[in-house]
Amino acid sequence: METEHTVPAKYAYKGANLISFGTSIKLLFTGYLTTVAAGYLMALIQILFTHGMADGKFGLSLDDIVYSYYGNRSGSLLESKLNGSMKSNSPEQERFKLIQWARDGGGEVSYQQEIKPIVDKYCVLCHNESAGGAIPDFSKYENLQKTTESNQGATFASLTRVSHIHLFGISFIFMFVGMIFSFSTGVPRKFKYTAIIMPYLFLLIDIASWWLTKLNPNFALLVIFAGSGLGISFAFMWTVSMYQMWILGGWYKQADRRNAVMRD
Questions:
Q1: I need a labelling partner for 217 at 20 to 30 A (CA). Which of 6, 174, 179, 186 fits?
Q2: Which long-range contacts (CB under 8 A, 24 or more apart) does 25-30 make?
Q3: Domain ranges of the chain
Q4: Per residue, what are the HEC states of 4-24?
Q5: Structure pTM?
Q6: Coil, strand or helix at 150
Q7: Is 213 exposed, middle or buried (0-12, 13-18, 19+ CB in 10 A)?
Q8: pLDDT band at 241 (very low <50, low <70, confident <90, very high)
């Protein structure tokens, strides 16, 4: 009988691939991939309800990207939000009063007489001192008055904050998605290599496109292009990984002696 020490080295990692892994490893990978896919879906929905409402219409458009990063410089930030992502948070009559107040310059006298009761009732629940982060405190007149200025889109401070969060977080996620996918077999090298490196390239392009759009609205199309590239690469690696684990290796019970660790 052969012992572990007598097995030739070239056979030591035979069968190290998604098709041949044991059920425990497959469940571990599947749990991660499923959770990440749910998170990705939630992120897309969040984009639809934030950036996707920047122009006041549901659904992501080129104008939404421009307004989110470059701004809608024909009106104030307050008016843009009230016609966009915050449109449903107050009745029409009160919303129009806030917009008219912003257009009139956001005076303090009219604020105390007409605007403060509306803000206290519909806005301060979320926009308060304890909210923190990027949410302004509208319990103070000076903070609300700043939003009556021209809508310049995302600030450089907020872009810096969101950029570093995405660079660290998303690259970390794709490292594990790519690692799982790297155990796949039978995928042509040109597709496998491309799928693994694509997320990092598109992530860098995506982050750069935010800053470029902030400076020039003509770069807005690049944001959509980079985001689509991220989604396509994720969907490809996710689908191939799940298919090989549970369809080829589970349903069809295929045997695969190839070593995905040492060879592609």
A1: 174
A2: 26/245, 26/246, 26/249, 26/250, 29/180, 29/241, 29/245, 30/242, 30/245, 30/246
A3: 19-51+154-251, 75-146
A4: HHHCCHHHCCCCCCCCCCCHH
A5: 0.74
A6: strand
A7: buried
A8: very high
